[in-house]
Amino acid sequence: MAVSKVTPGQLGMATPFGELLGSSNAEMQAELADYAKLGVDWVRLDIHWDLVQPKANGSYNWTLVDRVFNAIDAAGMEVVAVLNNVPSWLDDTLSDAASQKALADFAKAAAQRYGDKVNYWEILNEQNKHGVDPADYTAALKQTYTAIKSVDADDTVITGGLAAVPSTGNGMWGAVDYLKQIYANGGGDYFDAVGYHPYTYPLTPKNNASWNGWEIMETGIRGTMVANGDSDKQVWMTEMGAPTWGNKVTVTEAEQAQILSEAVELAKSYDWAGPIMWFSYQDSALDTGFGLLDSSGNQKLAYSTFRTLGNQDNDVSSVSAQPIVVDIIGTMNGETLNGTDDDNRIDGKGGNDYLRGHGGNDTLFGGAGDDQIGGGAGNDKIYGGAGNDALAGGDGADTFIFEGNVGYDRITDFDQSENDLLDISSFDANSHVAGNQSFTFIGGSYLSKAGQVGVYIDKSNGYTYVQGDTNGDGKYDFSIRLNGVYNITADDLIL
């Protein structure tokens, strides 16, 4: 059965399982809350088979996995589960029939266990550089695919992410050669997407050197798929990143951010590209320098880049959001439009409207006129549109999105504790430069040039203003009022 394609270049996080598993509940919740702020749609995690089933043909112990997967599901993100870490009582190269069958049995048990909490399965990780012969892998893949589909035919099965390494003849296969052998061994009908790891550092994705991991994907990986009749399948970039420090090849923080930005830009231009899982969230001793945060929790430049891009792709399509069930469309007259407990799309069109989302994760458009918009419960997206609008998110992590012709809008219940955000990324921050530029946050400093956005507090009246200069005259070209006094930082804005 064909599976639905996902948004090209949508961002996820490739998180080492131990990073979340080893944290306290409070620490795990804090990290997942930051994922939400970053706009993470996907979390890629290993299911350590050796921990779940440590004894030969023994029972499965899902306790550790349950804790993490339940938390991710509650946070509204999709899990990409990597079936990995073959236990020691089996052949970790999958060279015998017993090991291949055991993997399929484990996959079926996992699919049954997690049901709708996990709909995406990646079969092993970088097996092409770990001595797993492609013929043996294909035999295991066929059984594993069949086992997962027997539980849910709509689940997506992804080949283990192939490492961008050369073929050396000592158990390490080049990614393209390995994929060709999967097809040669009859595996083409037993995966829904190809997993690949297009690491490029110290190069960037736009560098067309033949050994660049991105170039290998564009030509060799994609070319092999097309040659085998799989042009309709996507390439999922289930790991990608670049280290800013360590003992091997490194890049600067600016280069790390550029690699991320170029990857998303290029992926969005291909209909065959799947999501990008960034490795990783925070530096650790095991994988030095790859994080968006350093080991002390300080943000690198790529953190801001990820946040801007991650929240932009949420505006286009969020895999983690439930589908919008009810459309409620107004007329050009002022009216009251009330949502339901479903995920509503409510559009006031013209007139001075009163819109309320009620329950669910709603998207509300004020349109023209002076509107009053309330999100209600759920994680809502609120577009005031033209006119002087009063906006209230209600409960949940709400995003207030401003585009083009903004009047004197006011937000009556901005709540930083619930991760509310102001999205001003649709504005062209600098009207003198071609393209849509991002803003630079200057805090409480005075506006002095195009592309700056600042925060100004009126303590006597209890208001906070977010204002931006797009033409460089030192005056604000838009002003958004928050009712209340807030310590607004760049973390509260999508620039």
Give the end-to-end Cα distance, rounded to a whole number of Å: 40 Å
**Biggest sheet character:** 9 strands, mixed
Oligomer: single chain
> What is the beta-strand fraction?
15-25%
Strand order of the largest sheet: 10-12-14-16-18-23-22-21-20
CATH topology of the largest domain, which one?
TIM Barrel
**Text of the CATH class of the largest domain:** Alpha Beta
User: By helix and strand content, what is the structural category?
Assistant: alpha/beta
Q: Which blocks of ≥5 consecutive residues have pLDDT under 50? A: 315-325
What is the number of E strands?
Answer: 24
What does it look like?
GO terms for molecular function: calcium ion binding; hydrolase activity, hydrolyzing O-glycosyl compounds. Keywords: Glycosidase, Hydrolase. This is Family 1 glycosylhydrolase. InterPro entries: GH, Glyco_hydro_5, Glycosyl_Hydrolase_39, Hemolysin-typ_Ca-bd_CS, Hemolysn_Ca-bd, Serralysin-like_metalloprot_C. Residues 27-270 form the Glycoside hydrolase family domain. The chain is of the alpha/beta class and 495 residues long. The chain folds into 2 domains: 11-314, Glycosidases (TIM Barrel, Alpha-Beta Barrel); 326-492, Alkaline Protease, subunit P, domain 1 (2 Solenoid), CATH 2.150.10.10. Helices cover 26% and strands 22% of the residues. The chain contains 10 helices and 24 strands. It has helices at residues 17-21, 25-38, 49-52, 63-74, 97-114, 134-151, 175-184, 213-227, 253-268, 301-316, and strands at residues 11-14, 42-48, 78-84, 118-125, 156-163, 193-197, 234-240, 273-278, 326-329, 336-338, 344-347, 354-356, 363-365, 372-374, 381-383, 390-392, 399-401, 409-411, 421-423, 440-441, 452-458, 463-469, 478-483, 493-494. The strands form 3 sheets. Strands 10-12-14-16-18-23-22-21-20 form a 9-stranded mixed β-sheet, with no helix packed on it. Strands 1-2-3-4-5-6-7-8 form an 8-stranded parallel barrel, surrounded by 7 helices. A hairpin with an 8-residue loop joins strand 22 and strand 23 (478-483). Helix 7 (175-184) packs parallel to helix 8 (213-227). The longest helix has 18 residues, at 97-114. The two termini are 40 Å apart. The model is unreliable at 315-325 (pLDDT under 50).
